[in-house]
Amino acid sequence: MDFYALYTSVGLWNALYVILYAITNATKLMKYSTRSTEEIFALFICIAFTVDALKDAYKDFRKNYMTEECAKFDELVASNLAMNSTATIPVCHRENSLLFLLLMLGTLWLATTLYNFNQTPYLQASKREMMADYALPVAVITFSFIGSYLFSEVSLDQFNAREVDQVFHLPDPSNFSLKVVLAGMMLGFPLSLLFFMDQNIAESMVNSPDNKLVKGTSYHWDMMVVGCLNVLLSIFCLPWMHAVLPHSPLHVRALADIDEHVEEGHVYDIIVKVRETRVSNLVANVLIGVSVNLIPRPLNYIPIPVLDGLFLYLAVTAVSGNQLFERITLLFMEQTAYPPNHYIRRVPQRKIHQFTACQVAQLFMLCVLGFWPWPYIKMIFPLMLFSFLPIRMLLIPRFIERKYLQVLDGVHP
Q1: HSE (CB half, 13 Å, CA atoms) of 271?
Q2: Which residues have C-beta within 8 Å of that of residue 287, sequence separation ≥ 6?
Q3: Which 3 state secondary structure label does DSSP give 396?
Q4: Which of 45, 166, 188, 394 has the fewest CB atoms in 10 Å of its CB?
Q5: How far apart are CA 117 and CA 227, in angstroms?
Q6: Which of 216, 244, 273, 270 is nearest to 413 (CA)?
Q7: Given this model, what pLDDT does residue 342 score?
């Protein structure tokens, strides 16, 4: 089967299913989705970013640090034969792996430091806010310069950006055989479920009452727009799009005015207001389009470890405010040191840990399917994510009272 024909077929069927979800008001099912499902999926995304970054680091260490040549070099050094001119000294590039680790963790450190600069007393409030907003690009540019110029003698894998002669690729109609159409129909359905859950979970987190948004929601209309957009993207073999985590909540936070609230020694970030505008989204996407002119240079100067540090930054910042992560940390804390959260005051400790254990079990199932090496098993991932709705509404209330669930995991209005 031709790849472009199959890609278009899957995308069109996926878009058709998504449009049907919008027409039939299927988004109403998300009223059964509570904070629990959102937190599980959001934490899975954080784990996925972290795993991808650590995989690259492990591969680099296997390639440059834990090699036979390095082992032979250690033997020569231990036996004091390295000074013998007749001995053949093996080539060992451990400096590559050390620089990889330095750039990855350095990017994470600088980005998170600037992101949390609002919590420091330095400079004026407007300048602190600007540094927090531009934390990621500053960190990427800084450590890309360090890796590509200050350590230019150390060989690192760079971001592989290639020039594309044909941006809009129309597949040959003769390649759309019955086999391709049927394969697209079967593969497009689980993909549409993933779009449905990902879009609505991201939108639900954006429209959380904690964000104090004034403008109303439009779940069905947004689903229709996503379906129509992906029809065009599929026809031209362009990447599909929908609302995703953690980008959407982080975008809301970037547009928000945030105050710090201190209670019993614990500091909380409270959103005062959010500048609800379409301009930021429009400008961001225009800049993404303009960035095509940066291929292959200067994007090729970005080392891979800097990109991995970017993934770690997204994971770390997305964990902030995730109650599942906060309740997992309670398992390792003394009870007297618990933060004064509302559910700690109103729910027994045993019930809190029971609910956390249920969420961790569901998160574990997502990780098993998401990181399974056999690619076909990942088709079950959207179905597993969708199954969390009846699990939460029908199974968990059997051993945790609803009055406690209402506090721990209130249903969205």
Answers
A1: 20
A2: none
A3: helix
A4: 166
A5: 39
A6: 216
A7: 65
Query: Residue 261 belongs to what H/E stretch?
Result: strand 256-263
Please name the amino acid found at residue 327: R
Check if the beta carbon of residue 27 is closer than 8 Å to that of residue 219: yes
pLDDT in tens, 53-63: 999 889 888 88
Query: How many C-beta atoms lie closer than 10 Å to residue 393's C-beta?
Result: 14
- What residues pair up with 262 in beta bridges, in sequence order? 267
In DSSP terms, which residues pair with 326 in a beta bridge?
none
- pLDDT digit string, tens, across residues 354-413: 888 988 999 998 888 888 888 777 778 888 888 888 888 888 888 888 888 888 776 444
CA atoms within 13 A on the CB side of 203: 21
Asked whether the beta carbons of 349 and 1 are under 8 A apart, the reply is no
**Single-letter amino acid code for the residue at 189:** F
CA atoms of 18 and 143, how far apart (whole Å): 41
List, in sequence order, every residue forming a beta bridge with 158; answer none if it has no partner: 303
| Rounded CA separation 160/297 (Å) | 10
Tokens 């995308």, residue located? 11
333-343 pLDDT, tens digit per residue, is 777 667 766 67
Distance CA 306, CA 65 (A): 19
User: What is d(CA 70, CA 62) in angstroms, rounded to the nearest whole number?
Assistant: 11
Side chain identity at residue 19, one-letter code: I
Q: Which of 22-31, 103-112, 126-135 has the highest mean pLDDT?
A: 103-112
Distant-in-sequence, close-in-space partners of 225: CB < 8 Å, separation ≥ 6 = none
pTM: 0.80
Which tokens go with 151? 């350590």
- The percentage of residues in the chain with a pLDDT greater than 90, rounded to a whole number, is 12
Buried b (16+ CB within 10 A) or exposed e, 265-279: eeeeeebeebeeeee
